[in-house]
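Note to self: keep these together.
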Amino acid sequence: MKKLIFTAFLAISVTAYSQWTIPAASPRQKVEQQFSMSKITLDYGRPGVKGRKIFGELVPYGKVWRAGANSSTKITFEQSINFGGKVVPAGTYGLFVQPSEKEWKVILNKDSKQWGAYEYDEKLNVAEVIIPLQNLSEKQEWFEITLNPMDDNAIDLVFKWDFVKAVVPLKTGKPETVTKIVDKLKEIKQIEKDAAAQK
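Structure:
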C-alpha cells in the first residue's frame, strides 16, 4: 500500500513539475505588428549583455550574425515589402546582420530554418541594406527587435543591444496597388455600415 501511495505521489509530482521550464539563457520572443493590409511577424532569441563586450568580441565585426541567439531570426511578411530599395515578395526569411564599427549590413536570406548562422549561404540572400549605427545613451541589457509604424505604408525595423541602435526603414512593396485595394476596402466597409444602419 505504501509503495502504491509513493508511486502515485511521484507520478503527481512529475506531472506538476513538467509544466514548468528552466529559465532560458536567451528567451525566445515573437513580435507581431499590423502593417498596411496585413502584418509582419518576428521570431528571435534575446541574449543578454551579462557583463560581456558585445560588438567586436562576442559578435565579431565582419562576420554574419544570426541577429539574436540560438536558431536564426525569422521575419515573415504577409505582403510584398520594399527592403533597402528592393521589393521582396511575401514570405518568411532568415534575418541576419554583418556588423562593423560604424554600420551594419542587414540581410534577408531564403533560409529561415537554420541554427544560428553556421550554414549561412550568401547565395540565398534576397536583399541587403547597409545602415549607419546610432549610439544609445542608456545600455540595452537584452537584445531587442521592434517594429515601429511610421505611416500607412512605412515601418521601421529597429535593433537595440548594449549601447547600439540600428534602424532599417521598410515600405510597402507596391504602394499604388495597396492604395487602390485600401480604397476599395473602405468602400466595402462603408456599404456594410450603411446597410447596417438601414436595418
